[in-house]
């Protein structure tokens, strides 16, 4: 069965080249010029991966990614953009992006990145299935398979990446989770972009446990993290 790609790009010449090339490589591609009606598109087309330009009409790619994440927590999202300032990268990963490709790009690199993201998604699904159905963290309950963290006052719907990172931390409670191993397991490489992405997820996870007694994610400079649960 063909893998489906949702491709959002408003530049017609580039869009045609990318769409035609991906279809020649065996993908089914749905091209849209903007992110309008993204909910209906996700439901009706059910893509396996999304390619998003950042500079889109009406609303930017970061906002579109946020909308996608509210509907689908695990689908890979690759940003295709000329915006490569650090703050743009952080914003992109915070909005749910899983990879970032700078324009202009080669089709060979795009194909490699798409393949890598799909492999990571499949591997992540397998690793999440190997965790217990429920992990008790003092007054918290983590359900890896459901992407949920139950706090004393609410249920937090985690993204797929958040569940992966928290799952690795839970596998090393009160010991060290090596930063490079975490990056290689969850993202497939330890590049600068993915390293910044990891920083964003660690910050978000800390926020979920903020104010709780006896739970802390400690950064060990040059080594990784210690998930302290006392």
Describe this structure in words.
The chain has 230 residues and is of the alpha/beta class. It folds into two domains: 4-127, Response regulator (Rossmann fold), CATH 3.40.50.2300; 132-229, Arc Repressor Mutant, subunit A (Orthogonal Bundle). It has eight helices and twelve strands. The strands form three sheets. A five-stranded parallel beta sheet has the order 2-1-3-4-5, sandwiched between helices. The model has no long low-confidence stretch (mean pLDDT 88).
Features:
alpha/beta; Arc Repressor Mutant, subunit A; 2 domains; five-stranded parallel beta sheet; four-stranded antiparallel beta sheet; elongated
Q: Helical stretch count? A: 8
Give me the secondary-structure category: alpha/beta
CA(first)-CA(last) distance: 48 Å
CATH topology of the largest domain: Rossmann fold
Coarse morphology: elongated
Q: How many domains make up the coordinates?
A: 2
- DSSP, total strands: 12
- The run of helices and strands is EHEHEHEHEHEEEEHEHHEE
Strand content: 15-25%
CATH class of the largest domain: Alpha Beta
List segments where confidence is low: pLDDT < 50 over at least 5 consecutive residues.
none
CATH architecture grouping of the largest domain:
3-Layer(aba) Sandwich
Strand order of the largest sheet: 2-1-3-4-5
Question: Level of helix content?
Answer: 40-55%
Q: Report the mean per-residue pLDDT as an integer.
A: 88
CATH homologous superfamily of the largest domain, by name?
A: Response regulator
Q: Which sheet architecture does the biggest sheet show?
A: 5 strands, parallel
Rg, nearest Å: 18 Å
């Amino acid at each position: 069965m063909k893998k489906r790609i949702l491709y959002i790009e408003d530049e017609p010449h580039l869009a045609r080249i990318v769409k035609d090339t991906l279809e020649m490589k065996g993908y089914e591609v749905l091209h849209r010029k903007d992110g309008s009606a993204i909910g209906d598109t996700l439901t009706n087309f059910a893509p396996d991966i999304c390619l998003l330009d950042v500079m889109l009409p009406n609303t930017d790619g970061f906002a579109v990614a946020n909308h996608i994440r509210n509907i689908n927590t695990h689908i890979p999202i690759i940003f295709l953009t000329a915006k490569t300032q650090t703050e743009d990268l952080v914003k992109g990963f915070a909005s749910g992006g899983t990879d970032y490709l700078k324009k202009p790009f080669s089709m060979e690199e795009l194909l490699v990145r798409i393949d890598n993201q799909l492999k990571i998604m499949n591997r992540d699904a397998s690793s999440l299935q190997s965790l217990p159905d429920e992990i008790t963290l003092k007054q918290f309950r983590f359900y890896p398979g459901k992407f949920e963290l139950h706090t004393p006052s609410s249920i937090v719907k985690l993204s797929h990446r958040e569940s992966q990172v928290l799952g690795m931390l839970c596998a090393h409670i009160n010991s060290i989770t090596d930063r490079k191993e975490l990056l290689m397991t969850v993202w497939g490489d330890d590049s600068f972009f993915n390293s910044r992405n990891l920083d964003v997820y660690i910050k978000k996870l800390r926020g979920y446990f903020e104010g709780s007694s006896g739970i802390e994610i400690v950064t060990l400079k040059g080594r990784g993290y210690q998930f302290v649960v006392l």
